[in-house]
Amino acid sequence: MNASYQTWFKQKLAKLQTIDCYSAGVTPEGLAEQLGIDQSKIVKLNFNENLFIDRTKQTAIMKQLADEIDLRLYPEDEEAKLREQLSGYMDVPKDFLAVGNAGDELIDRIVRLFIEPGDVAVSFMPSFAIPRLCVKRQGGEYVAVPLKGDFQLDTDAMLSIFSDKTRLLYLCSPNNPTSNQMKPQDIEKLTKVFPGIVILDEAYGEFADYSFVPRIREFPNMIILRTFSKAFGLAMLRLGYVVANPELAAVLRDKAPLPYPVSGFTIRMGIKLLGNIDIEQTAVAALVAERGKLIKQLNQIAGVEAFPSQADFVLINTKAPADEVYMKLLKRGIILKKWGPLLQYENCFRVTVGLPEMNAKLIEALKQIQGD
Ligand SMILES: Cc1ncc(COP(=O)(O)O)c(C=O)c1O
Predict the structure, then answer these.
(1) Residue 372 above 70 pLDDT?
(2) Ligand 1 binding pocket includes 200 (Cβ within 6 Å)
(3) Is 104 in the pocket of ligand 1 (CB under 6 A)?
């Protein structure tokens, strides 16, 4: 290799190392190996996955698709067909929709299209981490204003930093990790005056009280993000979509910029699930019912506070130090998402609403730990 290549490549690698990336932490496989137990014994409650989806029905649809799909062909018309179905599900015309590889990729797509080096993105904290990573990678600045003590938006503080440099506003509602929805009047107030694109992340929309989708026509600068990963239990396949006014939706569809970004199999799976909507509806209803029970049981444990939730997970704060609780749970084969300090709370965790038997193990373990 010539010297010019060597120097350039070394510098390039060093620069690439500085890119801040998402790190998933403990995996069920790794933990099972460490504990010397079968992986099926691990209680995985860290990723907000929806285990209430009937797996037998989901698998039956997959098998049906395996017979129907010709994998040798490019997925030419698939996206348009999915938009047709989604148009019924969301009750918006199909030119209000764009499809992508789940929420993360759509956030990345929006940031790549709308953020230039030096632009500023505004959000609040604590919230979902991916938008910040995408904005930073794009050479933008990310400013996050703390939520108020009741987990609602500090609109005055946010408004005070809007300027002709702030081109992206990321609002997550229901918010990950606080699990509440923001007040609609606050979202409206910020969106109406924001001098750029507003992403309203409704990844958990199906578990919540209200959505902005019926009001999308009022907000020409708003992109509402939705995913199949949560309510539809399709996290493995990576499918999501946005609802936005036609001009914006068209840019997101046409300037992706790769042709056929989403696999045809994935899209067809989405179409089938929308056509069998009872699978999703049954799962969401069961999860929401279990969520209520879980919150109640968690709050009955001395030294644990669980907050109300509009999502498929619950935020808790423990009296005992978060690191200690986290390690003790891991030893029992239970994985939560540790947050530690969050606003005025010291020891927070985000807990997926698991199946009843998983939640029972968590409750039992927390009782033991708090009693230690
Ligand atoms: C708030 C929020 N938005 C978006 C996503 C992205 O999900 P996906 O890429 O699976 O659609 C997540 C995932 O946890 C999330 O919590």
Answers:
(1) no
(2) no
(3) yes
